[in-house]
Structures are given as C-alpha cells and as structure tokens.
Amino acid sequence: MKKGSVSRSSKQILAKTGQRLTNQRALLLDLIRQGHGHVDADELYRIARVKRPRLSLSTVYRSLQLFKKLGLVEERHFDDTHHHYEAKGSREHTHLFCLGCGQVSEYFEPIDDGIKQKISKEKDFEIDGIETRILGYCSNCKAKRKQGA
Fold it and tell me: Alpha-carbon distance 79 to 67, whole Å?
C-alpha cells in the first residue's frame, strides 16, 4: 500500500456499512497505518491537526470508535488511563511495554501454536485472537536502573 493511501479493503468496509470515507477519516486511518500506531486519541489529534487544522477532537474520538467497531483498528490498554489504537494487523505480535518510560514496541513472533492448542483443549475455549503484553525495561531504562543500583 502506498504511503498516504487508505487501503481498498478499508474503503470497502466503510462503504458496506453505509459510512463515507471523509477526508478526516482517510487522514486518521493513514496516520495510524503509517507507523503512528499505538497512539491515543489526543496524540492522533495533535498529529492530524498539522494537516487539517479545522479537525475537531470529537471527530477523532468518533472516528476511532467507528474504526474499532468496523475492525479497522484495535484498541490497546497499556495502562489504566489511556486507550491506544493501532491498525488491525494480519500478523500476530506481542507488545513490549517499558515500565520505566512507557515506550511500547512490537515483537513479531507468533505465540506457539502448541500453547494455543493446549489452552483451547484444556479450557474448551475457541481462541479467536491473542493479545499479549510483556512488561519490562527498554535498553535506556535498564541502563538507568543499573546506574542507580
């Protein structure tokens, strides 16, 4: 997909549900997909306002809720105070959350299928998706902790 272009499937999903792909929605989807993932609504609003100064914060919130409802973005809860959003991806990944600075990075190694099957069988549970978060310290925070110890 070209940078700055909303995917055809996103347009189709919006069209099927009777939703228009407005310039504001297209911009917000593009920003999330261009690597500005893991953003909260306020941060997305600040980034988007550079290109669309008349964009309102309420439009950002409404659009994120619509995107979430339609399966275009996923809502993540890295802490108790904020909801973060990222483009719905086809690749399973784990979020590495730094307890020092709050940085979130992704690790693209799927959870072992054997573990999934074991959980599914033991708990009689059909797994639809897995969201994992690993807590620890990034290299910068780890170094600072060693210096302070």
Answer: 21
pLDDT of 48 above 90? yes
Q: Which residues pair with 25 in a beta bridge?
A: none
pTM equals: 0.64
Task: Specify the CATH number for the domain of residue 77.
Answer: 1.10.10.10
Q: State how far the Cα of 104 lies from the Cα of 95, in Å rounded to an integer.
A: 6
Q: What is the DSSP letter of 95?
A: E
64: tokens are 């994120």
Whether residues 12 and 42 fall in one domain = yes
Q: What is the mean pLDDT of residues 22-49?
A: 85
Q: Which domain holds residue 112?
A: 94-148
Helix H or strand E segment including 1: none
In Å, the largest CA–CA distance within the chain is 58
Tokens standing for residue 49:
């306002």
Which residue bears the tokens 């980034």?
47
pLDDT at 27 over 80: yes
CA distances from 137 to 46, 72, 80, 104, 148 (A): 27, 30, 18, 10, 14
The per-residue pLDDT for 140 is 93
Any idea of the CA torsion for 23, 24, 26, 27, to the nearest 10 degrees? 110
Q: In this structure, are 66 and 82 located in the same domain? A: yes
